[in-house]
Amino acid sequence: MVAADAFSRTVANGFGGADIGGPWVCDPSSGLSMVSVATSVGQLFLGADSYVQCALEVDVRDVDLTVTINVEPAMAANTTTHPLVFVRQGASGSQYELELVVGENQGELRIERQASGGSAVVAMASFGGGFQFPLAIRFRVEATDDTHLMAKAWPAVQPEPESWLIEGYDDDDDTEAAGAIGVAGFTELDGTTITFDDLRVFHAGMVSPDQPL
């Protein structure tokens, strides 16, 4: 196992140290007041148009990551919230992301690449009725040339589905190397809370793609 965190501690102004994987490093540092751990979840308290991320500097390339996400309150009309996880984060900010786009009674699940040449959507799926939170997500990234990216999302109270919901291939020099993994959030709605729980990260080669985690 590369990293794991059940967030079973109490921390103000940050996430503290993960159960496995070392200390969480949050950015921007000025946003630490928006980050805490309580009631067995990692919490991001976001104002309108605010963004914060927290990373574990584990330096891993091929990963299989699961985490449970919750968003409160429900989105108002014409506003969205974007909880996400990222892998292969480099010093330049390049990374692969699995992002939820949470709107009023609608949602999207996106795999995206962020790199020096700009961002690109690798794969996505729409949810006309929105997501049922808390939501479990799984994100698997493996290989370098023609990197294979797979993702799924399901209500956390239900068993993990066997099939991947979205997948695609990508070939970009900036996102081929090992890097940090982490969680982040952005919102357009003031007073939004995003929580993360039960984070588990494995080397992709140690877990079969069709093996539930």
Fold and architecture overview:
- This protein is an all-beta fold.
- It has a single domain (about 5-205), classed as Jelly Rolls (Sandwich).
- Helices cover about 0% and strands about 55% of the residues.
- It has strands at about 5, 10, 25, 35-40, 40-45, 50-60, 65-70, 80-90, 95-105, 105-115, 120-125, 135-140, 145-155, 165-170, 180-185, 190-205.
- Strands 1, 2, 4, 5, 7, 12, 13, 14 and 16 form a 9-stranded antiparallel β-sheet that branches.
- A hairpin with a 2-residue loop joins strand 9 and strand 10 (about 105-115).
- The mean pLDDT is about 95.
Give me a quick take on this structure.
This protein is mainly β. It has one domain: Jelly Rolls (Sandwich).
Keywords for this entry:
mainly beta; seven-stranded antiparallel sheet; nine-stranded antiparallel sheet; Jelly Rolls; 213 residues; globular
- The CATH architecture assignment turns out to be Sandwich
| Overall helicity | under 10%
CATH fold title: Jelly Rolls
Mean pLDDT: 94
Question: What series of H and E elements makes up the topology?
Answer: EEEEEEEEEEEEEEEE
Main sheet attributes: strand count, strand direction, barrel closure? 9 strands, antiparallel
Which SSEs are present, and which pair or pack?
Elements: E1 3-5, E2 11-12, E3 24-27, E4 35-38, E5 41-46, E6 50-60, E7 63-72, E8 81-89, E9 95-103, E10 106-115, E11 118-127, E12 135-142, E13 147-155, E14 166-170, E15 179-187, E16 192-203
Antiparallel strand pairs: 1-16, 2-4, 3-6, 4-5, 5-16, 6-15, 7-12, 7-16, 8-9, 8-15, 9-10, 10-11, 12-13, 13-14
